[in-house]
């Protein structure tokens, strides 16, 4: 990793807030120059599903569209913009867009008439759209866009910088992982399942814990790094078919603090950015084995001291452990595993909202388990 270039890229994060907060600040400044602009938002592109997803919004204390995604392939004009890099202009939203789509209906309900969509690229890769909306008709055209260029450049910069930071953290963790082949085998499907469970739970508890789309996305992505400290544990211990002795159990528990050390090192290597997403990553790695009653490890935290990001991963992790084949046990069915989680809620260990979040999506959970099955221990390379 080129430490110097990473340092310079991320050093400006020293005092920034979330993308929602930054868009709100820019919006305030922009309204001095262009008072007719009523909203700035960024929709993130998910290339795995070809979906545009709500991510950040300058009006996030108001009536923002949240927790919503839609196939880009069904938005032909935006699809073309994502390929050509051209902007899209709308001046009469109620008559130009299909009102059967929830996002269009929402825009019309808010009284928006004009829209400017600016595609955003990171290293030539399309990552999403900046949207500017106005209640005034026919506000945007090429000359207005040119006059807004300084603001659009700032928005593009903060969007791509945050995207770059999040993915630098993920890529650095993946690189560390990939250097240990036996651990990589051990954990790749597990990471994919955990990420999907975490997303489902985060979306379900968003209204309870006031999670915005930016945080939900961070939790889903950074959940893949939760077990990075297990790289410090011999793979033979992780795949052991008999129960562990006390010393081995302690060695396994040490992986959390080792993980914190590894993540801190990665953060330092990319310039120690002081950005809210970095806190989410640290919380997940440090606290994903804590229980609400204080019986977890390594810190014995209780209740409110355990951040919601870590509570989500704890529930996802316990569910995954129960529903995966292990050398020493058969996988449990989804309903059976959920019953066990509910017992843990009753015993004061797990967050009930997080467990409910899984219960509402049992068919989806089954599909995830089928799509990312745990490799049978007998099929691992060392057995051939």
UniProtKB/TrEMBL annotation:
Coiled coil: none annotated. One of its GO terms (molecular function) is phosphoric diester hydrolase activity. Residues 165-374 form the HD-GYP domain. Pfam families: HD_5. PROSITE patterns: HD_GYP. It comes from the Bacteria. InterPro entries: Cyclic_di-GMP/3'3'-cGAMP_PDE, GAF-like_dom_sf, HD/PDEase_dom, HD_GYP_dom. SUPFAM superfamilies: GAF domain-like, HD-domain/PDEase-like. This is HD domain-containing protein.
